[in-house]
Amino acid sequence: MHDSPPRRTARTIRRFTARLACWVRRRRRAALSHLLRGACYGIGTGLISLITFWIQHRA
C-alpha cells in the first residue's frame, strides 16, 4: 500500500556533501564581506548611541 521512499546510498550522500563543500568554498569571500559589513554597521551604531547618550546626560 504505502511504499517508503528509497534510502539514499552512501555514494549519494558523499556526492551531496562534496557539492555542498564546493558551494561553500565559492561563496566564502562573499560571506566574510557580509560579516565584516555587519560588524562595522554594529560598531558604528553602538558608537553613535553611546555618543548620543553621553551628550544627553552631559547637558
Structure description:
With 59 residues, the chain is mostly helical. The model has no long low-confidence stretch (mean pLDDT 89). The chain has one helix and no strands.
SS-derived structural category: mainly alpha
The major beta sheet can be summarized as: none
- The level of helicity is over 70%
What would you call the shape? elongated
* Count of strand segments: 0
Rounded average pLDDT: 89
Number of helices: 1
- Give Rg in angstroms: 24 Å
Which stretches are low in confidence, meaning pLDDT under 50 for 5 or more residues running?
none
Strand content: under 5%
Written as H for each helix and E for each strand, in order along the chain, the element string is H
Distance between the termini: 78 Å
Question: What distinguishing features does this structure have?
Answer:
59 residues; mainly alpha; 1 helix; 83% helix; elongated
Task: Provide a compact summary of the structure.
The protein is built from 1 helix and no strands.
Topology:
Elements lengths: L9 H49 L1
